[in-house]
């Protein structure tokens, strides 16, 4: 009898496509998505969006030779950073002379650049300041390592003395006649150090450079990281988590609410409703407005809890929050109705909704921050409205931008809401004619 029970379930599994999907396909699909995210196998290593700014206003040294050498180093650093595979240059002060430190800080605040690299020539010193967006916890470490590598390579190639006890490298004839003096050994150590830094890709490059520079008697380059966003926030990542979780469960709630339409179809309630003066347009619009209102309440409860318990500033950003919540809930409601009209049974809807919602949440940033994804996965995430919703909430709570900055996100989400609602209406025609 035990075997009979097993045989019955095997036959049921063989004829149930949804169960096949959830048992074998979904685990493999999600394993592949997260493997690609964390191994960065799609599109290579994520490239950090940077603005490159050359600020020569502080170069007031009377030593013209030192200043010209520092300028030469700055030229080499800029060229190295332009050719770096880990950076994506969005603005360059060489092409736009109006780009200064204030403009770079504004680019970071608006999200157009993750980091603004400000290079300063101050006499014998070439320093770098990184204007950073603290929401990306990886970019500052990567860019700091790349900038330090470029500065060390520039110092090695120009053979600039970097300390009071260092002297220029002796001529080759002197080396051949007297053997390698201490200065040439020190310079060789410096060049070896520069090559070592050039090969470093880890986040500990800055600390390692300081240790090696101390051992070789060389002063490390000055690279200062300044957080222009998130410095004064008591709980800087809570808005990101609140938005990600709220949008994901908003989708689950909308698909569950849309499934009521299939239940009404199965128990013939839908036929009785349509036999009255109610039309399919009335029914779908009524369900859409209800799901939108329910979604707004659901998201509001999430963010009110975040303010009461975790200190999120909801009241200070209420206008942007209301705009984003309404359009996001509307898009989620249309998505739920679209899946409901696309499926034939509640079982099909349950299987399809789990796959669709989890896939959209993984690619859109609800599960994993998008800044750790490769560029290929980031572009794929733009096909989900999770990414657009999270970008909108990020502008509201993290960047604290005015509502006018939400125009791209509002446009995409509203277009998605009405587009999916129209598709749901077209798919529902079969219920009117059957």
Describe the 3D structure.
Keywords: Cell membrane, Membrane, Transmembrane, Transmembrane helix. This is ABC transporter permease. InterPro entries: ABC-2_transporter_component, ABC2_TM. By secondary structure, the chain is α/β, with parallel strands linked by helices. The protein has 2 domains: 182 residues, no CATH class; 200 residues, no CATH class. It has 17 helices and 5 strands. It has a 5-stranded mixed beta sheet, with helices on both faces. A hairpin with a 2-residue loop joins strand 3 and strand 4. Helix 12 runs antiparallel to helix 15. The longest helix is centred in the C-terminal third of the chain and has 31 residues.
State Rg. 29 Å
What helical percentage do the residues reach?
Answer: 55-70%
Number of helices: 17
Report the strand count.
Answer: 5
Q: What class, by secondary structure content?
A: alpha/beta
Helix-strand string: HHEHEHEEHHHHEHHHHHHHHH
C-alpha end-to-end distance: 43 Å
**Low-confidence runs of at least 5 consecutive residues:** 58-66, 160-187, 197-206, 211-217
Total discrete domains: 2
Keywords: Cell membrane, Membrane, Transmembrane, Transmembrane helix
InterPro entries: ABC-2_transporter_component, ABC2_TM
Protein name: ABC transporter permease
Pfam families: ABC2_membrane_3
Features of the shown structure:
single chain; 434 residues; alpha/beta; 17 helices; ABC2_TM; ABC transporter permease
């Amino acid at each position: 009898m035990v075997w009979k029970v097993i045989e019955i379930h095997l036959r049921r599994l063989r004829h149930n496509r949804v169960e096949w999907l959830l048992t074998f396909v979904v685990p493999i699909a999600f394993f592949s998505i997260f493997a690609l995210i964390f191994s960065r196998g799609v599109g290579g290593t994520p490239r950090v969006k940077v603005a490159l700014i050359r600020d020569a206003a502080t170069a007031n040294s009377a030593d013209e030779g030192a200043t010209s050498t520092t300028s030469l180093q700055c030229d080499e650093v800029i060229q190295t950073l332009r050719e770096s595979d880990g950076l994506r240059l969005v603005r360059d002060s060489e092409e736009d002379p109006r780009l200064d430190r204030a403009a770079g800080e504004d680019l970071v605040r608006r999200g157009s650049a993750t980091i603004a690299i400000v290079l300063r020539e101050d006499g014998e010193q070439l320093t770098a300041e990184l204007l950073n967006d603290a929401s990306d916890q990886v970019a500052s470490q990567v860019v700091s390592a790349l900038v330090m590598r470029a500065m060390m390579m520039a110092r090695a190639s120009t053979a600039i003395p970097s300390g009071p006890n260092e002297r220029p490298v002796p001529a080759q004839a002197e080396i051949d006649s007297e053997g390698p003096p201490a200065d040439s050994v020190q310079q060789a150590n410096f060049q070896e150090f520069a090559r070592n830094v050039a090969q470093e890709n880890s986040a500990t490059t800055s600390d390692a450079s300081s240790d090696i520079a101390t051992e070789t008697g060389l002063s490390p380059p000055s690279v200062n990281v300044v957080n222009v966003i998130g410095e004064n926030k008591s709980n800087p990542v809570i808005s990101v988590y609140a938005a990600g979780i709220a949008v994901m469960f908003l989708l689950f709630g909308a698909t569950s609410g849309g499934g009521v339409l299939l239940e009404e179809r199965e128990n013939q309630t839908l036929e009785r409703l349509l036999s009255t003066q109610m039309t399919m347009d009335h029914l779908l619009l009524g369900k859409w407005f209800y799901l939108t209102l329910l979604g707004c309440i659901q998201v509001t409860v999430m963010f009110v809890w975040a303010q009461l318990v975790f200190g999120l500033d909801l009241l200070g950003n209420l206008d942007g929050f209301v705009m984003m919540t309404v359009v996001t809930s509307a898009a989620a409601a249309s998505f739920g109705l679209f899946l409901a009209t696309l499926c034939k049974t509640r079982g099909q809807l349950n299987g399809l909704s789990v796959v669709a919602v989890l896939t959209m949440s993984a690619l859109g940033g609800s599960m994993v921050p998008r800044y750790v994804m490769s560029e290929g996965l980031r572009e794929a995430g733009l096909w989900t409205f999770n990414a657009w919703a999270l970008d909108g909430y990020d502008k509201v709570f993290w960047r604290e931008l005015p509502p006018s900055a939400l125009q791209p996100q509002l446009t995409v989400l509203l277009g998605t809401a009405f587009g999916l609602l129209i598709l749901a209406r077209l798919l529902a025609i079969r219920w009117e004619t059957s």
